[in-house]
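Hi R.,

Here's the chain you asked about this morning:
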Amino acid sequence: MIDPDRARRLAEVALAASGAEATEVAISATEQALNRFTHEHPVQNVHRQEVSIAVRVHEGGRQGKASTGTPTEDAVRRTVERARAAARLAPAQELAPMPGQPSGYRLRGGGPLRSDPEAAAGTVGRIAETARGADCRVTGIHHGCSTLRLVANSAGLLVHDWDTVAQVSVSAFKDDGAGWAFSNGSKHEALDAPDVARRAVHKAVASRAARAVPPGRYTVVLEPAAVSSLLLFTASHGFGAQQVTDGCSFLVGKLGEPVFGRNVSVADDAHHPLTVGPVFDGVGLPRQRVALVEGGVARHLVHDQLTARRAGCSSTGHAQPQPSRDGPYAGNLVLEPAEGGSAELIRGVKRGLLVTQFHYSNVVEPTQLTLTGMTRNGTFLIENGEIVGAVKNMRYTESLVEAFKRVSGIGGDPTLASALFGGWAVVPSVRIEEFGFSSGTEF
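And here is the predicted structure, written out as tokens:
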């Protein structure tokens, strides 16, 4: 793996070799260690390293970009030549100037991945021991990923930082029951793998002999993984300024107006203590905290340089690697918690459902964020404030905009959660009234 010193040297080579009006070099060096396991044994052990060096140039109102995975000076010089050749063939377009060195960076200051196969094997062993105690079968992953990111340009910008993510997830099976639990963070030492296994096993045992309930509208308590599967669609179809301009956002014409319930506040905050990911954007500008929704009212959007210029404001540090047709992206969503956890939310339900996770959620209609997907890995019937049994999985079809107007409770258990399609959000459990389920299943 290349270290920061070598990355800087390669960036300097690219900048020196380019005679373009403006030149940017973006380097990422990623190291991953992945262990998949089933029952008591690892079944896949992967250690992967990957380097990407991208060069972007501006020449005569045109832009060109080229990249290489070979971290040598000769490869970098050839990449500069290809980027300049691409610029000569590109159409003229609106370009944002490459930024100089700004202030306001709050870097994570991490380091390379500390991969320890023996420690990973010990973690798998403790998970298996927990499962054996309940006569359950388990599968799962133990994953670590560390990325060095560097952005430099001919305007004087030079910034680099490390971004590290650690994950443990466990699926447990008992007879016809299935359960799942997870934990994410910035290092494996902070993750309690046996606790993850215990939670998955508990769900698997409780999920046996599931019964069908009719589709319809239910009060639901969504655990953090289910909440993130919904909320993350607001990043791809909502809070970006370009999405609003293109008319594919649920916020078109709604800034300054109520869009969610008054108890719902959402920010984008790359510096939240629970989140992970880069703290500067695709062009090297520091990511700022942006209050997106306050007390249910849509307040602000995330911007890159181009959308900020058109809106007459400053970039919030949310550019994707350029060029990008998709515009700025809110990549560190945080749903403000309240108090208590899912147990407290359950106690307030007369009749409803507890949902562990949603599976294969997709957008049906973007301007109301109408989504559809399936429950998975533990869905339970709640009656009079208590879980009374497992139910078979159900398909939901619901507008997130309308559902978040009916939030009747928010937990105090903020958790770093993802979704099957990727992304990160810090979210607590949430209770929603009249959540729509359109059909049932046989499993």
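One quick note: The chain has two domains: 4-195, 210-443.

Cheers,
M.
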